[in-house]
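Researcher: Predict the fold of Equilibrative nucleotide transporter 3.
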Amino acid sequence: MVTSDENEEPRRLEGKQKAMAVCFILGLGSLVSWNSMLTIGDYYYSVFPKYHPARVLTLVYQPFAIGTLLIMSYYESRINTRLRNLAGFILFFASTFAVLILDLVTSGKGGIGPYIGICLLAACFGIADAHVEGGMVGDLCFMCPEFIQSYFAGLAASGALTSILRILTKLAFEKSHNGLRKGAILFLAISTFIEFLCIFLYAIYFTKLPIVKHYRAKAASEGSKTVSADLAAAGIQTMPNDQESQDIKEQMRLGNKQLLLENLDYAADLFLIYVLTLSIFPGFLYEDTGSHKLGAWYAIVLIAMYNVMDLISRYIPLVKCLKLESRKGLLIAVLSRFLLIPAFYFTAKYGDQGWMILLTSFLGLTNGYLTVCVLTVAPKGYKGPEQNALGNLLVLFLLTGIFAGVCLDWLWIIGKGSF
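Model: Structure tokens for Equilibrative nucleotide transporter 3 follow.
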């Protein structure tokens, strides 16, 4: 079907470490803009004190992300993956740059006009996330599991990076005039640069790595049409006389409904992982953990510990003896995490800050570890087009779990007179 030589095994493996590094950076770029907006929430609260920016921006972001990904998952087999991912990274870059420009133009002043502008840009982040996260995971599902692991490590690294930067900017600008705004501008400038770097890496570098070309050529030979543009960009053309054969293979692939039914437990795993995580992080950690010796630093330390442990845990499955692959075992582990709800409740009520830091670290540890285990195990045994479709479906359930968790986070404040 393609002009590549599929018998050159050594050549196929060239560039694996480089591809993993690029996947990490692309994962970083998939969430760093949104995490930056969340991290500078204290600045937005000072500018828009009456508009509840943290909760409103999240509720704006998630429906656009889920709605866009729902449409793209349905039409996944007809979508040009290269254009999809590039469109997502370009939208991330443009939206992040626009947030920076909006702040500079308004000189950091509040008001309903700038706030609506920020909400619209948060919606753009959601649309970009659906393009990139679904497209990248679908693309990486028919490659080696280490690529998915690296990509999701990059997603976690965006949280760790913004947390570390938040601590540094708080130390550097806490006592200076307009310190919050200076920190916010620095966050947005760094995020804009990372998004530009992702555009370059995906468009030019990643697609030309020999191991990436091999996996995409293999997917094309199994009937995938979504990789054609990436193969063309790498100098590999689909042979026209094989089009009929490709159409037949595409018709023989499992449909989305059958794929979902066969992997319903994995979809439920991801949904439940993020329902629990987002019902605690970050809202509960910011508002319901009480006052302790760390004072204003308490919530910042909790968020940082979660993000750092989430990042570290995503490398644990690389050690084969520590990777959980049993479907039943994964489901039991995911369900057992719900014991963290009473643990957090009683620790916030009766425990000290050390126990809360430990619990938060464990929340991040299990979140990252189980996410990578599910997403590296689920695609095994399927053909390229089916793995791509399954990747999109699993990300859809992941994002739906995030949205449900964000909504359930409000239950912690029932009875506190906040409604």
